[in-house]
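Key idea: predict the complex, not the pieces.
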Amino acid sequence: MTTVKTIHTIPTGRTPMPEQAPQVRATNFEEVALGYTLPEALREADRCLECKKPRCIAGCPVGIDIPGFIRAIAQQDMRRAYEILRQDNPLPGVCGRVCPQESQCEVRCIVGIKAEPVCIGRLERFAADYAMAHFEAETPSMAPAGKKAAIIGSGPAGIACAADLARAGVDVTIFEALHMAGGVLKYGIPEFRLPKSIVDREIALLKQMGVTIELNTVIGKLFTIPQLMQEKGFDAVFVGTGAGFPKFQGIPGENLNGVFSANEFLTRVNLMRGFRHPEYDTPVGMGRQVAVIGAGNTAMDCARCALRMGAEAVTVVYRRTQKESPARAEELHHAMQEGIQFQWLTNPVQILGNADGWVSGMECIRMALGEPDASGRRAPVEQPGTNFVIPVDTVIYALGTRANPIIAKSTPGLKTNQWGYIELDEQTGMTSLPGVFAGGDIVTGSATVILALGAGRRAATGMLQYLGLRPAEASAEARAAKTGA
Amino acid sequence: MSTGYRIVKKEVYSSVTYMWEVEAPDVARAAQPGHFLMVRINEEGERIPLTVADFDRQRGTVTVVIQAVGKSTREMMALAEGDSILDFIGPLGEASHIQKRSKVILVGGGLGVAPVYPQLRAYKELGSTTLSIIGFRTKALVFWEEKFRAQSDELHIATDDGSYGHKGFVSQVLQMLLERHRDTEEVVAIGPLPMMRVCCDVSHPFGVRTMVSLNSIMVDGTGMCGSCRVTVGGKLKFACVDGPDFDGHQVDFDELMRRQRRFQREEQESLQQYEEECRLLGRTA
Ligand SMILES: Cc1cc2nc3c(=O)[nH]c(=O)nc-3n(C[C@H](O)[C@H](O)[C@H](O)COP(=O)(O)OP(=O)(O)OC[C@H]3O[C@@H](n4cnc5c(N)ncnc54)[C@H](O)[C@@H]3O)c2cc1C
Ligand code: SF4
Ligand code: FES
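Result:
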């Protein structure tokens, strides 16, 4: 006898995620969210109504078969759950942890209308972690297709593109500028949110699939793209170099000692393991009273790293309100729990320094949200006479990034837009140079892991067509079906 | 490439200055005067910027000259010929824009003598008249005199204590040469910040363009972090992608010198700890 599941028969509340207590985790770099146990995952999977017309899938940028993988979890067929995820997402363990589910899949979940939506992200993470712990990774060995592709950058876009190409038998080499593969997943997002072992396993999988990774290789400097194609025999190139050029505001005092870009702070802490200085040689140089400017994921990561590095007080300053904050809801929530202070509707006007040139404070002004601008967002406007000083000795800029100019400068004929991002042909996904494709933050500007993954995969499809390894029509159809277009 | 990069030759120029010739054929092929590298010796190490002092495309090697000032550079000095280092990333930065000049003055101070050399050679190859000034604290620290002599129409050596060549600073010799050679078209000055700054002050009244190489504090060396930022001509620049060469008359040296002290405390602590460890292990630091 089977009973039909309805909104009334399932548990209303979401299954809580086990977490380290805020006071404890604020002093360590271990993962905050511990992951569901099997019973917890089964309980949460049971909340999915397995809709005939699932609304959640349309919210997923890569169109994962969400009810499919959740059903597999409910049936305790974890291998299938993982396989379903992997069909559309090469990094489920990463995305389950860092995707903004509340604005993608979960916001559309039908259960969310009457109760709280299904915890799709947490289940995704569960399936990936379960697979990692219990199954040998199977690596299909494809017959070599006789083509060579170069991937520039080992972030999510590059990883996704490399995986798809390797699966099709292409001989793939990833060139990475840094001494470590993984892009932002490694140098930016901290350990307590995304353990590096998760990323490392994905990289190891790529290598098992036959992908070569050349670290310490800055394309545009050591080799140029034309050299890769003409001298090194690569038939196609994918540019997935991210958008890692930090922005400042241009206010007085930004070059004082104690002012960092988020990237400098995070690379010192994460990539260079400065949180374990002096065991690791790279110092971080943080003070005790820290201000972080901006309220996105990067800002939350900086604020929470600063706390874990021993800051006495950390204040996030943002010119709009909490509602406009682009950070994942969970990160904001966690940051608040940990004791990060927030000054909403506040904008810095100058950074003050002492006689020795170190930061001694930050002068701010209160803002109010004005009329909606062209994009429909309400622009913040200064409230005259509301200036005040926050006493800080460290200021971290998390205002986003711009395009790094190295590739564009060294690649004649590569078309970029006015901000330096690479332009693509909508039809083929190719850049202005034949055989050169691009995707991820270097095309869109700072976005998300899942969008970068999706872009990497789309480029791989285009590259396979370009290389004559996949008929053009078939895949265009598949893509249209996928996106529901 | 996890095997690292081999130090094929090491020469010690003084108790604190040493040279490595590192096997890195791809880097050697792409290197130009003015480029720099990011170097990390082991997993725990820092990424340290080092300016290219020479490169030999046939041998597939790149030469760097290093001064042991902190923990990392001391530790590096303890490495021997045949040892390998983990990361040797480059060439980075914009190459020097070297164009034929009828007359150029090249000034190297201390460690800065090394990175001036490839520029000197490039100017000579273009047929410029090259006047070189190299300066050291004392005679015992002098290196590359013959290398410089071979490429220079005039070579001047200065030591602070007068133990060799002119007594005094390279900037004083620069002043003298600029007065004597009014047809000088360009000055290149590389060395410690105070030295580059004084050279710029000296050349400014002569209206001769003076290029300096700024080795500011870096993390990635690829434009990602902004640690290396400097103000040049009132504008924000990243030394690692916009430089490291800049028009010295436009550089805000006050700010740069202040920024160079950002990690003084941590560096001091690391160094003390390293010396303590060496002492306990019975090694010389
Ligand atoms: C601190 C932080 C937190 C974030 N948090 C989230 C989050 O919670 N959720 C989310 O969805 N997104 C988040 N993002 C955004 C997300 O990480 C990015 O959108 C995504 O990583 C972009 O992927 P990518 O592959 O395009 O580039 P990247 O991840 O930036 O990777 C690019 C790689 O290319 C390398 N490279 C660059 N130039 C060259 C060159 N010339 N030669 C060789 N290699 C080169 C770089 O070193 C880097 O490794 C965050 C970003 C940051 C900075
Ligand atoms: S919309 Fe919600 S309930 Fe329906 S299939 Fe998707 S996750 Fe399950
Ligand atoms: S060293 Fe990081 S941007 Fe220059």
